[in-house]
Amino acid sequence: MLRAVSTAMPRGITTAEVARSTSLARPTVHRLLAALTAEGFCDHDHKAGLWMLGPEMYLMGMVAAERYDITETARDHVTALADATGESAFLSVRRGEETVCLLRQDGAFPIRSFVLHEGKRFPLGVASAGLAILSFLPEKAIERYMESHDLASGHGSEHGQDLLRQRIAETRERGWAVNPGLIVEGSWGVGAAVFDTAGQPAWALSLTGIESRFAPERREEMGRLLMHHAHELTKKLRGERL
């Protein structure tokens, strides 16, 4: 339920929406959210009927950040990508079978894509960050994921097994991933994986923008730039954790 609430920030989410997201009964959801609110994990806007994350989540997040948060280390790279390209640049993290956007920096180009923002979650294989991470997991992990997930049912036929496998192969060959407007028509993205000390893809840097600015030659340029920053960030993180 807390994950469902977090995906609706900052607007908030209704009891019915949480119930649908979690497949729990509405009275059960309301009772549990009320209990979480009493402990400070949620807030409730009674007038609007919306639930939001509470102050206790912020405090716990500050403690957890000492171990898991790399945003300050990555911030210079995200800013450099936005400045160099004029597009919106992002840092996303793998959390189980999803990616979560941690950081966004907009470039100078005035037309923005708002497919991705802080807190936004996508399944692995959806959006360029999730595709980059999925593509560089071990083969057995990719197969287990593919066998247990039907991305086409929630994200369209372009995320069917055969097409997704093709994009994984292309990403491995290039080194960086492309989302050719599969989430929102006309909104393209490119992404590159960042690896942890065990050599596993744990984060991703990505760029998004309108299709006209993602012509093949420029995609190659942005892909090489992403790979450079992903490699440099990987080196920094490995050095910090040795």
What is the topological layout?
Blueprint: H1 2-7, H2 15-22, H3 26-38, E1 42-45, E2 50-53, H4 55-68, H5 71-85, E3 88-95, E4 98-105, E5 121-123, H6 127-135, H7 139-148, H8 151-155, H9 161-174, E6 177-179, E7 187-195, E8 201-210, H10 216-241
Antiparallel strand pairs: 1-2, 3-4, 3-8, 4-5, 6-7, 7-8
Helix pairs in contact: 2-3, 5-10, 6-9
InterPro entries: GAF-like_dom_sf, HTH_MetabolicPath_Reg, Tscrpt_reg_IclR_C, Tscrpt_reg_IclR_N, WH-like_DNA-bd_sf, WH_DNA-bd_sf
Domain HTH iclR-type: 1-55
Keywords: DNA-binding, Transcription, Transcription regulation
Question: Mind explaining what this structure looks like?
Answer:
By secondary structure, the protein is α+β, with helices and mostly antiparallel strands. It folds into two domains: 2-61, Winged helix-like DNA-binding domain superfamily/Winged helix DNA-binding domain (Arc Repressor Mutant, subunit A, Orthogonal Bundle); 69-241, Beta-Lactamase, CATH 3.30.450.40. Helices cover 50% and strands 20% of the residues. It has helices at residues 2-7, 15-22, 26-38, 55-68, 71-85, 127-135, 139-148, 151-155, 161-174, 216-241, and strands spanning 42-45, 50-53, 88-95, 98-105, 121-123, 177-179, 187-195, 201-210. It has a six-stranded antiparallel beta sheet with strand order 5-4-3-8-7-6, sandwiched between helices. The chain has a two-stranded antiparallel sheet with strand order 1-2. A hairpin with a 4-residue loop joins strand 1 and strand 2 (50-53). It is globular. The mean pLDDT is 91.
